[in-house]
Amino acid sequence: MDAQRAKASPAACRPLAALLLAAPLLLSSCGRAPAARRVEPRVRAVLEAHGAPALPAPPPADSVPLLLVADAAPSAPAKRPPGAALPAPEAVVSAAVPFAPGALRDVRFIRLRDARGAAVPLRAKPLAVWPRDRSIRSALLVFGAALAPGERAIYTLDFSVPSPSSPSQRADRPALPAAPAPGLAQVPQPFQVPPAAVLDEALLPNPDGPIAAVLPPSWYAASLVSGPQLPAMDDRRFPGFEARIEGALARMTPAYDAYGVTCSAPYRTYYDGPHALYQRFLRNGDAARYRRARAEAVWYRQHELRFSPDRRLAVHVCERDDWSPAAPLSWPVLRRMLGQGMVDDYLLTGDPAAREAVLAMGEALRQNQAALTGGREDVLRVTERNMAWVMMTLSSYYALDPRPELLSTLRGLADRTVAWQRQGASGAFEHDLTRADPSECERGPRGGSPFMTALLVDALMDYHALTGDPRVREVVARAAGWLAERAITSDGRAFRYLWGCETDAYDDSGTADLNLLIVPVFGAAYALTREPRWIEVGDALADVGVKEMLVKEPKHWNQAMRAFGRYLGYRAALPGAASEWQRSAGR
Fold first, then answer.
1. Could you read off the pLDDT of 478-494 as tens digits, one per residue?
2. Model's pTM, two decimal places?
3. Cα–Cα distance, 136 to 103 (Å, whole number)
4. How far apart are CA 573 and CA 555, in angstroms?
5. Order of strands across the sheet with 90-98?
6. Which end of the chain is less congested by CB atoms within 10 angstroms, N or C?
7. Rounded to whole angstroms, what are the CA distances from 457 to 33, 131, 400?
């Protein structure tokens, strides 16, 4: 276990406005940092990477800058005659571009200009849709670019919908250019009207090519590609978090990537390392963080997943070799099947291996439902996190393959979760604490775990984003009320490690490092109810959590990073936070 006591259908134009709700952030991302703000050095590097000198003019409201960053030159460059220039070879560049619900319905509306304003031939295909309205959630774009080693360039993506006045330009029948000649080495003429993207369903990505393509963090935040986010450069409320989370990763000893595969704690990917590192990238938007998150996602698939011979099912390597869906997956394996990180990787790179992993893990869990819930005990209700990890992965599965039978499975989990909470009067998901781990509670037949509840709320919010199930509002609000009123320590600084344990009240603040994992529950409650009191409670506990951060190894780093960025995203909807964004853009 994890004892840590030692320490809402709008008009066509409205989705675009919703997508660019953070447009002031986008502009500030592409320009200099606000003069009145102290910017952390690593964040400043990102601001400079999106610097204004490379942009001839501010982007219009229906476009977004795309930053291209070529890998640095090798340490021993190839020999060439003195004075001879080394021409930059053209490389295939791929970018997975996420969109908010309702913002884009046809990838053929996307156009691309290079840093000089010249049109760039572009091929594209949808990667995933938002299940509720079938609008595009992420699109893969592939084009050619020639950059010298270490060079940067800012291209511009235009996704405006043509005027419906012309029959050939109606939204349901876009005008398409002739398909480009094979290859991507065409040189467009400057200032021509960019051709629309050519739909290519067989398109393959190049996520690890020599040129990375990234978007401003404000775009990622507005797209909701990995839940609510606030760009790190705009975190004025908790600047200590930004400095400490980055410093801890840089100074971790042994280094994060020095850890390997283990079936006992501490281990590298606990709390979903790929998801945590992608959250870090999305909040900063730079190529280096993209490369780091991408490497972790690939490492996880290569080292921690075991596929069935037909590759339709996948489980963690810590599961027994002879496992079949007729037997319930073990509890430790449930928390090692990382659907959120794998769906992040697919939506942000288009890598078909990431999609395969999501679908295979999801199918294993779907086929395992009867064994998990219908045996001697309901495994998903033994602890809140068992339900949480399963719901996260099945939500990721449904996000990429929104079939009715998958929705039925997800709703079944939601039904069980709602009924579970309603069986008690506290608002907790009550269960036998001793059953989960007698070493943590020798006697406690009815109790709850605040940090595991936070994981379950995170899963419910993933489910809610895909389905809009109205019951989630009441469940999350009740859980937040329980945390604030009954599961908090008597000094008001932390949460009890376990609530309801008869042999240990856990009434101390030794678990304050868990605050950053738990306060997103209050952010989710605010997002669903718009009651500011939840942010007041969350902020007070987050202040303590930032001060008491425990990020000495991957498990603890993932724990803080995967969760707290979402809390900042939830609280960014506060009226005061929005006005801060506006003031920042006006400086």
1. 999 999 999 999 999 99
2. 0.85
3. 8
4. 29
5. 90-98, 136-146, 123-129, 198-199
6. C
7. 35, 20, 21
